[in-house]
Amino acid sequence: MPKARVFLAWSGPRSKAVATALRKWLPHVIQTIEPWMSENDIEKGARWLTEISGQLQNVKMGIICLTPENLLEPWINFEAGALSKINDSIVCTYLHGLETTDVSDPLAQFHGTKADKEDTKRLIHTLNSRLEGESLETTRLDEAFEKWWKDLETDLSNAKGTHAQEPPKR
């Protein structure tokens, strides 16, 4: 059975670090999930817009990595909107350095997940419940989460120091 793909949306250095951390971590916790991230999963020479559009049409789960720096980025809103138009899809905003009250519409319409242990665990349970016959039993899922949480927590902590660089002056 093919793995369930999860689209990881990001924009900016800190958001990219969060998405990268999730891409590495998710398959350890739920082995039947295959995260997809543009930075890593588009081959050199491929048409990136075509690749992203194809992924957005064929996934049922997406995680939008939000940070204070990218809340108003058009691409984040585009990807969230594209994911939300798919029948039976879920769009999970993952808030790094943000509170749910920091997020405005249209992204506020999605029930946000804070990048902390308790809320991330709830997100994992949501993703697992969407795996249609491939989900892990709750005890096994909780054990895997506890085993791998420290790795994600470390990577999320390291992402806090990642900020956008000033654009070069002409």
Detailed description of the structure:
The chain is α/β, with parallel strands linked by helices and about 170 residues long. Helix content is about 45%, strand content about 15%. The protein is built from 6 helices and 5 strands. A 5-stranded parallel sheet has the order 2-1-3-4-5, with helices on both faces. Helix 1 (about 15-30) links the parallel strand 1 and strand 2. Helix 5 packs across helix 6. The model is unreliable at about 165-170 (pLDDT under 50).
Protein topology:
Blueprint lengths: L3 E6 L3 H17 L3 E5 H4 L6 H11 L2 E6 L7 H11 L5 E6 L17 E2 L2 H13 L8 H22 L11
Summarize the structure.
This protein is of the alpha/beta class and 170 residues long.
Tell me the number of helical segments per DSSP (H or I, 4 or more residues long).
Answer: 6
What ranges have pLDDT less than 50 throughout 5 or more consecutive residues? Answer: 165-170
Order of helices and strands: EHEHHEHEEHH
Give the biggest beta sheet: 5 strands, parallel
Described by the principal axes of the CA atoms, the overall outline is globular
The overall strand count is: 5
| Overall average pLDDT | 87
Helix content range: 40-55%
The class by helix and strand makeup works out as alpha/beta
What gap, in angstroms, lies between the N and C termini?
Answer: 53 Å
- Which strand order do you get reading across the main beta sheet? 2-1-3-4-5
- Strand content range: 5-15%
Radius of gyration: 16 Å
Key terms:
170 residues; alpha/beta; 5-stranded parallel β-sheet; 6 helices; 5 strands; globular
